[in-house]
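Internal tracking record. Fields below are filled automatically when a chain is submitted to the structure queue. Please do not edit lines marked as system-generated. If the sequence contains nonstandard residues, flag them in the REMARKS field before resubmitting.
Queue: standard
Priority: normal
Entity type: single polypeptide chain
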Amino acid sequence: MKKHMKFLVQLSIALQILVITIEPISTIAIKTPNVVMTKKYKNIENLKFPTLISAPNNKAQNRVNKILIQHIQDSYNSYLRLMKEMEKMKEDPVCKESPSTCQYEYMTNYQVKYNRNSKLSILFTDYQFTGGAHGNTVITTYNFDLKSGNQLTLDDFLKSDREYEKVTNYALAYMKKHPEIFYSDPSEFADFKVTNETNFYLSDKGIELIFQQYEVGPYVSGNPSVLIPASIFQNR
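SYSTEM-GENERATED OUTPUT FOLLOWS
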């Protein structure tokens, strides 16, 4: 009997230790904010998009996810149009001689570029291949305030024409210093200007401007970016 009681006491102590050990970990896991989960739209492997879970509040989370789902729905419609075009092209003699040249492709993916300080930056890439030497990638960035769910634009960071001018001049100077990435001919930048429509994402050091293919450099450069340090636009 004594042995049995001793065993029960030891078991009770062990269980208490186990609860104390596990509970903090469980609590941390539950309270981890701003988790982004990957989903496949309509279970299509090539159409991936993010869904925000565990945001500070449901209202903000729903606002963010509404914008993200709208993007993948637009991508899906583009995918359907491309697949329909591909089916028509298959009747062309060229496709029958070389089927691989008429094998179109559409892919959507994303990257989480920033997820701190109640801010979230998502970079979508929509890629399509319709034959030829290479495909084409279009990038779209979304930046959010996760407390409100509101979408952030450059106007939220650059408060005046003067600040847009400073950022434009900084980006131009950077690109001219790196002809191995950007166009080497200065005339290519004659009309270059950073506007509220310029794609960007947040960084610990400032904001990162990112450009479409061919916008500021050759195809081989992909989608080049320029980091704008916070000191450039926060010195007011």
